[in-house]
Structures are given as C-alpha cells and as structure tokens.
Design brief:
By secondary structure, the chain is mainly beta. The chain has a domain of 50 residues. It has one helix and four strands. The strands form two sheets. The protein has a two-stranded antiparallel ribbon with strand order 1-4. Strands 2-3 form a two-stranded antiparallel ribbon. The longest helix is centred in the middle third of the chain and has 6 residues.
C-alpha cells in the first residue's frame, strides 16, 4: 500500500476556522488570513455507488473522507500538480 503524506494546516476539528479552533502552520496564506481551503478537510462524504479510479482501484460504496491540499503555483503562474503515477 502506498501512502501520501501532505503538509496541511493543523486544527483540532477541521470544521472551518473558529475562535476556539484556528489553523496553525500550513504556510504564509494561512498565517496571514487565518483561513484556507484545507481548514475544512476530513468531512465524511456519502459515496452512493462504487467509483473506479483505475483497473485495480475502486472506491467502495459507503462513507469516505475527502481532503484538500493546496499545491501553489509556479513562477510563471501555472498551477502545480501532484503526479500520483510518479509516487
């Protein structure tokens, strides 16, 4: 099994920024704005039918968790990408 670790802002609950749960670390944007897209990670989502990622991988029906990782951009302004096939 392959595992991808991502550096995201740390929060206790990940239900958006609150006075009692502000994001910690996670980069300059988080530090400046006290918010970011990864502040809403780890919500449970209902997957109503199996979803095939590739010939060997299927996400089964049921509850799954999804998250967001900011990739930033290149000096030219292009969005960066995670190339999972290279991991």
């Amino acid at each position: 099994m392959k595992i991808l670790f991502c550096n995201i802002a740390w929060m206790k609950w990940y239900k958006g920024p609150r006075p009692y749960d502000v994001p910690v670390n996670g980069g300059a944007y988080i530090k400046e704005n006290k918010d970011g897209a990864d502040c809403d990670n780890f919500w449970v989502v209902k997957n109503f039918e199996p979803y095939r990622i590739n010939k060997d991988t299927v996400i089964p029906e049921g509850n799954i968790m999804m998250g967001y990782v900011a990739m930033g951009s290149t000096p030219k302004g292009d969005f960066r990408q995670i190339k999972l096939e290279r991991i």
